[in-house]
Amino acid sequence: MDIYCFVRIFIISIFESLIVLLTFFKVIQKSSYLKENKLKFSIFIFIYFIFKVWINVSLSVGYISIVSGIFLIILLSVFEETKFKIATIVVLLAGVYFGVIVLAYIGIFSFFNHLSTTKSIELLNSSYKFAITIRCIEFFIILILYKLKKTILKFQEFKYNDSIIAYWILGVFLMILFSLSLTNVVNGKVNILLYQVLIFILFIFFIIVGIIDYNKRSHLAKIRSKFELKEEYTDNLEGIIDIIRKEKNDFYNHISTIYTMCILNRPDTLERVKDYLKKTTNNLEASYKFFNTGNDYIDGLIAVKSNFAFQNNIYLDVDFEAALDSIMAEDNDLVGIISNVLDNAFEAFNYEESIDKKIVSIYGYIENNIYYLSIANNGPMVPKEIQNKIFKKGFSTKSKDKNDHGFGLYIVNQLIRENGGEIVLSSSPEETEFLIQFQINIEYCQEVR
């Protein structure tokens, strides 16, 4: 490949990639996005240029246009995380546009030079200037259309989370092309040094894209977790509001009852009113509780669970000697852990109705720089033969249908391990306890010292 050919490919690849990008952002109605991401799309253009040089060096001329189009579809999908359907439509639009401009240019050239179409094509194909000139014309026309506010064809911006699919399709596509190019390499039709340099650059690009994609998906996963945590917190607040709404209605009923008793004014009315108020106050204190665990999300969760316990005649004992903000665990994971284990403790009473006083306790304390979270109940004992199986995926004592049950405690165990903790089950006829251990965060240790 001589220097003229190299420069021609460089200029053509810049114009082709810019035309595709301008077309894409025009149809998704984000005209300003190109200016805001200049570095990103400079890399897009550079990678397309390297690819274009590589296929010109290693593939037959007849395959270059088709292969370039497929690569642009995949590259657009990877860089913009858009669906293949949208990327394909954009590249096809650009291809049709290229064809129309080329035919128009050949027609004008033939008319002014009094040549046949076939002769004009032969002359133009033999000139390096033709390809560059035609791409310049195409670029400036699409640039004018890009600046116009009127849109002929438009789509919504499609972002999807499966960009990893586009990434692996890119890898498979490059491997197929590498295999096809080996014939020309073996036959000595390719400059080996140039070929190796281009392959190395594409390989580095593939690795970098993979790392960027992984980091992006990790960031999105964290955002999703935070969103789910806020959603859980909102649900808990809605539960508390429902409790308050119910209590408001109950207040009205209690006041109406006392008012009626006063109107009747029977001899023992005063004593009866005192007894009624005493019982009502005790019930309100039992059902309407708020807690300070050191974590706002857990406060809301336990407030809702406390109301559930009261409605089901279960005494919920809550005591946090050490605040939950001292442990090394993600808030959304902590909500999932405590919620699942508490639900499991409540459900234990479904298998033993003869218990006089149902008790569920949740304690938090620190010993030897380890945070212990104990959730226990006085329900039936967990049989020894299944204690080692209870955290396994799909295991359940609730139903034979494993599609519906058996994932709660497995997920709890996974979440605890992901946060560097451990969970231990101990069960006897008197009590079943889930004891969870967490590491204490460094800031808390420094404050204690």
From TrEMBL:
Keywords per UniProt: ATP-binding, Kinase, Membrane, Nucleotide-binding, Transferase, Transmembrane, Transmembrane helix, Two-component regulatory system
Domain of life per record: Bacteria
Record keyword Transmembrane present: yes
GO terms, molecular function: ATP binding
Ranges annotated as spanning the membrane: 6-27, 39-55, 61-79, 86-108, 128-146, 167-186, 192-214
Domain Histidine kinase: from-to ranges: 311-442
Keyword Lyase in record: no
The protein's name: ATP-binding protein
Organism per entry: Clostridium aestuarii
Taxonomy of the source species: Bacteria, Bacillati, Bacillota, Clostridia, Eubacteriales
